[in-house]
């Protein structure tokens, strides 16, 4: 026989097989036993959660020869006919391809005919939100007052697109996303019955990748079985789903926590070389940070975690990292994820955010000071002095002598590594002797220089230079502009970078250039100041008037000063 996918072979045939929808199946079973069947139902919810399966089970239960029953017997001729699709009393329609007024009018004309074999004619309309406005209007009256032998079951993933006049005529049941635990349990049962050996961790990876859909989970399990040799392993599941192993995520977050930039960039490079998607990787980092935060807040609620299983490394990391850091991680990663949607350089954004997270400011936990007898006496003395000072103020004595030390405001110590002061004098000297040939020569070989760094296994240095740009050069020095202060400081303090880059440029251009780094904001100020002073210092005649370019002078004669806009 032709091979059938697992989700088709193991499609639920009774309400007990519908996973994670107890609130729906229990209500329908009670209604069947009490013979309180409605004329119209609306099943809404995410894909792969059992809406169409529950509709077919309900159709079998109302037509079963043993009715009233809470579960169809699946043995009588009617149940078997509905299961294999041969019974004409159960009509399944796809509203995506039958969404016109004519199809609905055809249904409206045929509902008056009695069923052939069963007690009810059941119309199951899948993706009902795809019906046109005219089709909905044609369905209204029939849906409100159908013949006694007709039941309508409407299924949709987008109930907000259905007119309220339709919804008000139906009993609505909302199917929810299936939890990872329920999906794992069902997949393990199916794998055992199918004689498939597996690792339990692989099932958890597949369940999390399915995002609450049983059909998606079984499709991924089918792929993993085909991909694997004798056993569905964790690596097989990671490969098929495109997910990232928890150990790799733990290693990446640990390196960020320890501010180990090199290890973080190496881990990212290793994952990307394995074919992992940068956007998917940053999403996994967000969810991993979220799980860390939830674990710190409520360690007992492990079922609420999206991406991790609580192992020893995860618990150890949760104890080390602080909640404020996790808030910062999630905020920075989320902003980067939004920016990555509009760029063709997702890898660059990923590497930059890793460096940024490694150098994010840390908030130290407050230290509890144990009070000793001496400290208690000191506190009492301070309180006594505060009381005396208050009395003096009440008596009108407010001018107290101020010592020279207290009058001088304390200088704020720089915190973090964001502040970088560029050597303004050296940069202006380069600008004074800058030539177009030198800067053009460096820019033309800049890509080759970055590629050479990569070949020498210096990817961490290349990441710092991804957004750097040579902006000016003289015969022996060039100015390198960085977008961020922190990258400029890291690059200029990295001896390996400042030694390696000039030697590579010398091989490529034949000239030895030293490097001066400058952040973008400071570069714009230095350049503007240099241009202004150069303009003021150049005079042309005895009257001391500034020189003017001959082309600008000619343009001024032609159009006048009011219409002339001079730009550098």
Describe the protein.
The structure is a single chain. The model is unreliable at about 365-370, about 400-420 and about 540-545 (pLDDT under 50). The chain has helices spanning about 5-10, 20-35, 50-65, 75-85, 100-110, 135-145, 165, 180-195, 200-210, 215-225, 235-240, 245-255, 260-275, 280-295, 310-320, 325-340, 345-360, 375-395, 405, 425-430, 435-445, 445-455, 460-465, 485-490, 495-510, 520-535, 550-560; strands spanning about 40-45, 90-95, 120-125, 150-155, 170-175, 195-200, 230, 470-475, 475-480, 515-520. A five-stranded parallel sheet has the order 2-3-4-1-5, covered by helices on one side. Strands 8-9-10 form a three-stranded mixed sheet, sandwiched between helices. It has a two-stranded parallel ribbon with strand order 6-7. The radius of gyration is 36 Å and the shape is elongated. Strand 8 and strand 9 (about 475-480) form a beta hairpin. Helices cover about 55% and strands about 10% of the residues. It has four domains: about 5-175, Rossmann fold, CATH 3.40.50.300; about 180-240, Helicase, Ruva Protein, domain 3, CATH 1.10.8; about 245-360, Zinc Finger, Delta Prime, domain 3 (Up-down Bundle); about 425-535, GMP Synthetase, Chain A, domain 3, CATH 3.30.300.180. The N and C termini lie far apart (about 75 Å). Helix 5 runs parallel beside helix 6 (about 135-145) and helix 12 runs antiparallel to helix 13 (about 260-275). It is built from 27 helices and ten strands. By secondary structure, it is α/β, with parallel strands linked by helices.
